[in-house]
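Re: your question about NB-ARC domain-containing protein

S., sorry for the slow reply, the queue was backed up all week. Below is exactly what I fed in.
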Amino acid sequence: CFAYCSIFPKDYQLDDIELVYLWMANGLVQSSNENQELEDVGFRYFKELCSRCFFQDFSEYYGNVKCKMHDLIHDLALSITQNECSMFLDSTQQIAKSVRHVSFPHPESLPKDVPKSLQNLESMRTICFLNERRERIRSEMFIKTCCSKFQYLRVLDLTRSSFEELPASIGNFKHLKYLSLWMNFNIKRLPNSICKLQSLQTLILYRCWNLRELPKDIRYMINLRFLWITTPQMYFPTGGIGCLNSLRFLFITECSHLEYLFEDMQGLKNLRKLAVLDCESLISLPQSIKCITTLDTLCIDGCENLELRMEEGEETQFSLQRLELRRLPKILDFPEWLIRGSTNSLKVLEVEQCNSLRELPNCLQNMASHPEIRIIDCPKLNNNPLQKAEEAGSSTSLS
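Result:
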């Protein structure tokens, strides 16, 4: 796992969750215990590398970690894996036939097609665009060649590409486990053939603002574990995302027209983390969210029309460890149903810029887990329950 990090250039900002799924895609994360999640093993690997000072410059967002690799450590990783991993810097560069993982730190300078020196690498497993310069990359021919040449590809990361459609031949990647179209502002549709990718674990469609809809057969992507989406849709139909019962992480971000989530959330039988961010038209969460028994992290931020009210009736079945509520101006009273089943599990509660919030629930003072509570910029809040929670043993901060 450490050696694989050499595909990233020096001073590149790494993301723990994406790194873990890249490792998983290449079979670098193994578990001897069938009850242990591969993600947990991967995060343990990441923490072990952190404890050995291989990474630095840490920052946290919504419970995830960003960091960089120390320059000297990066040199060490390169020396270990120079025959398997390579950064492709220009089209004249010669690549050893043993190379399996290739990154493109400057993909905007690539020719339209896959360079000849790469086309003979039949054992290619990873292709990553690492475009931090923000140039758009028109890469239709590049992708078509990848589809025809690299049948054993595990990772295809096309960050900041600018094509409008993926070729239907994308469905031929029988071994593909990681596909990212991060910040492709032009793509309008995904071919339904993408749903043939039965091995796919990770699909990243972050800031694909013009992606009109998800493929109609997305329910057949039975091994998908991490889905990150941006779309102009007003709602997600039932029988789609809600059927992805292998999903562990679901990030729904910057969906400016989205008013409703899918009603069949109870089908997400293994979901651990749900993040709903900057969906300003979102009105409510479905009642079925209460039925996601495995949910341990919920982050909601920048949803200015969301009230978080829930009908009484069915009890909340999840036990959260982390709850983050930010920039939710419609919330007057704390949605107690979110933490009703979490008195023994909640570790972190963060509430920030909820300008209309008047009070916290009294149940905070009786939580056996003594969570860390951080309240920031909530000017109308009566902090009496917070003071009592502190007296009961919770770590609290109010600013």
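The CA atoms of residues 86 and 102 lie 5 Å apart. Helices lie at 16-25, 38-51, 71-81, 116-119, 140-149, 384-392.

Happy to talk it through on Thursday.
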